[in-house]
Amino acid sequence: MLFEYLLRRFSLLLFMVFTLTVFTFSLSYMFPGELLTNVSGQVNPSFTQSQQLTEKYHLNEGVIVQYLAFLQRILQGDWGVSLSSGQSVFDHVVKLFPATLELCVYALLVSIFVGIPAGIIASAYHKRWPEKVINSLSLLGFSVPIFWLALLLIMVFCLGLGLFPMSGRIGLLYEVEPISNFILLDIVLQGFPYQGLAFVDALHHLALPTIVLAMYPTTVLIRFTRDSMLDVLEQNYIKTARAKGLNRRQLIMHHALRNALLPVIKQIGLQFSTLITLAMITEVIFSWPGVGRWLIDSIYQRDYPAIQGGLLAVSMFVILANMLAEFSHTLLDPLSRNQAHGKV
Amino acid sequence: MRNLLLGVLCTYLLGCIDASQQTIRKTQGLVYCSEANPVSFNPQVTTTGSTIDIIASQLYDTLLSIDPETAEFQPEIAHSWQVSDDGKMITFYLRKDVQFHHTDYFTPTRLLNADDVVFSFSRLFDVYNPYHFVGDANYPYFQSVGLDQLIRQVVKVDDYTVRFELFNAESSFLSNLATDFAVILSQEYADHLAGLEQKALFDTYPIGTGPYKYKSFLRDNLIRYHRNEHYWKHPVPMQQLVFDITTNGTSRIAKMLTKECDITAHPSATQLSVLAARDDIRVDKAPNLNIGYWAFNTEKPPFDNLLVRKALAHSVDFEKIMQAVFYGNGIIARSHLPPSSWAFKAQDNMPTYNPEYAKQLLIEAGYEDGFSMTLWAMPVSRIYNPNARKMAELIQSDLKGIGISARIVEYEWNTFLERIGQHEHDSVLLGWAADTPDPDNFFSPLLSCTATFSGKNPANWCNPEFDLLLTQALDTTDVELRKTFYHQAQQMIIEQLPLVPIAHGMRFQATSADVKDISLRPFGGISLGKARRD
């Protein structure tokens, strides 16, 4: 049963990856400028160079052959050369993606640890003041555009009070060797250099971007948890439990929560794709050296190979994250395996 | 688990309050907020001001330099020099205690000697130098001032004596050698890389003799230098020098306020009041030798027509631009040269705002219906033009008045310069900041024919008569005679209008109040070797 389900998911994944690669591949035709330059990242190649490149990219052959060659290169990690830096696009992605991922993971953690308890509290005090407060706060958080929130926080906490730095992952004078490219992990791996100050400084830098990025998913989780809790609390088995004389705490912790969290878990996974998009905005505002800022810079610089590579990496990641979320949801909730068709 | 979390939280909270963070910062180094990525790490191959600020004086030394106050030559790597009577032989006597950088990627085994000097200069013009063609043999400054045509050969006399032999005497030769571009590179390092067949790395992983040495560079983020412990001139106070690449001008100001930067390049005039109001930030202001101009691509019709260029120059209200863009922190140009240059002469026939006359000129030129053109505006703020975008918009609206529709074109800075070099533009708002006080620096690198070939002439303007004037001015050392030639050259620019001079900006620099010993020079890049904290 589970195997069949996985197979279905997997075929869907394959199809989506196929569509994605076809789209990315066709981008080099759709971008303005020389095809050869768009594909290879070589500006004004000499005659021999351009012959070699044509050979390498199979540009003199049919589109299908070119596409297959493209797939092969993608798999080998040869994603072309960035027009503006002259370095391998894949290297850029490998270096920058962890920063984005790091930010997203922390934001997601914050939103889970804040959003779910807040949602539970709201449902436990249904139609009383705690719910009203939480509801109005979450509506506020939901409606605030994050770039505005980010600028507001910078205005108040960085420029006004001078409590937090406004850019980057760590004070630039701290020298942390990139090992995993996850800054906190790197600092721990290097045994807390600068008497732990580097670690503190990194946390300091993380604070505002994480808050900004966590705002949207937190409000979504609050609302989801609350709604799904309220649904569950309406169920007959809860009523029975209540009739048996259980108090509210027992009712919620032992009976309602587990069932209510199922749709929320699925939601957590789905938030990842929204997070990546929002992370781009956050990265630009806080000069966070992640893949989103790089992608936006590349667009500004019309760096086609970089745009291509960046898009591919980000969308691949979103697809994978979604798949993983669905998968974990399925493991936890056997009912959902009965769907006859996959859905995105 | 709970204890650990608590511990982390405590250190975090303490860290916010604890002053130890400040003390560490104090001894660690300096952060300079820079406006663009460096194009290269070798000053020989670029003239981009933002790049020169980052690399030149920090990583390298020159044979001699010019004192910004007295405009006299000062010894650097050469402790003395001698010019022969006919001016064609210049002999430099080198210091014997100059060490090259010791880095992760190269450790020198010997001190700087005559071989390094010969190698550095022969790379510029000698096709037999193994490094001449690395990077497409593009040495824009030297080619545009014609240095590659001037030097017959560079001879090693003994280990610490070098002789330059010139084809003819040129009055600006020594000042050209004193620019930020004429750096001394290590021949030993060059041989080492050639042995590894990695010549291309020579300009990306620099080895010089300057106060700082290269550590790492992360594009769009930062460049890190470490102190050169063996610096020959003086001990370097700062352990590290970090360039934080922040292209957005407002972000640079904000980072000054949050103390993430210690020095910022080119704060914009509108935001100076914010910075000046703070006690912990010092804003320095100094006159600077520069010119911001509007250049036309004179090889492209209709801009090859003098009447059209004149019409365009007369259609724009530059007084208004001065107020809107410079906020009183610049002076309107009265000639191509800034007034502080000794060869300056105010031009009587500078184009004035006169749209009626402009229209008439257009009709004369046969463009009564107007035309459309591109107006390239540089994306960064420089001394000579703090806000090219705004200036472009003002010009655009003025041009509309005489029936010309202009489209504003912007690219990332280095791409922008590259494309201008390929003359893709119709007209461009750009400028030039001098590298030496010699007036030739405003003419040869910008408007000579050789500058056209090396892609540095934004007007794409090659006029043999003009070139002759420049050569004549260089052939003599008689200052009065040179003056008359440069006066003629200035007049010719205004008559022919390959470009319209707009303004001369003041150089600004915002520095944290506790950072000392950074001086603003009227020419060339910034030098941070002596910078220290109190």
UniProtKB/TrEMBL annotation, chain A:
It is a multi-pass membrane protein. It comes from the Bacteria. SUPFAM superfamilies: MetI-like. Keywords: Cell inner membrane, Cell membrane, Membrane, Transmembrane, Transmembrane helix, Transport. Residues 97-325 form the ABC transmembrane type-1 domain. The chain crosses the membrane at residues 12-31, 105-125, 137-164, 202-222, 268-286, 306-325. The keyword Membrane applies. Pfam families: BPD_transp_1, BPD_transp_1_N. InterPro entries: BPD_transp_1_N, MetI-like, MetI-like_sf. It is found in: Cell inner membrane; Cell membrane. The keyword Cell inner membrane applies. GO terms for molecular function: dipeptide transmembrane transporter activity. One of its GO terms (cellular component) is plasma membrane. Belongs to the binding-protein-dependent transport system permease family. OppBC subfamily. PANTHER family: DIPEPTIDE TRANSPORT SYSTEM PERMEASE PROTEIN DPPB-RELATED, PUTRESCINE EXPORT SYSTEM PERMEASE PROTEIN SAPB. This is Peptide ABC transporter permease. It comes from Pseudoalteromonas amylolytica. The lineage of its organism: Bacteria, Pseudomonadati, Pseudomonadota, Gammaproteobacteria, Alteromonadales.
UniProtKB/TrEMBL annotation, chain B:
GO terms for cellular component: ATP-binding cassette (ABC) transporter complex; outer membrane-bounded periplasmic space. Pfam families: SBP_bac_5 (PF00496). GO terms for molecular function: peptide transmembrane transporter activity. Coiled coil: none annotated. Residues 72-452 form the Solute-binding protein family domain. SUPFAM superfamilies: Periplasmic binding protein-like II. It comes from the Bacteria. GO terms for biological process: peptide transport. PANTHER family: ABC TRANSPORTER PERIPLASMIC-BINDING PROTEIN SAPA-RELATED, PERIPLASMIC BINDING COMPONENT OF ABC TRANSPORTER. This is Peptide ABC transporter substrate-binding protein. It comes from Pseudoalteromonas amylolytica.
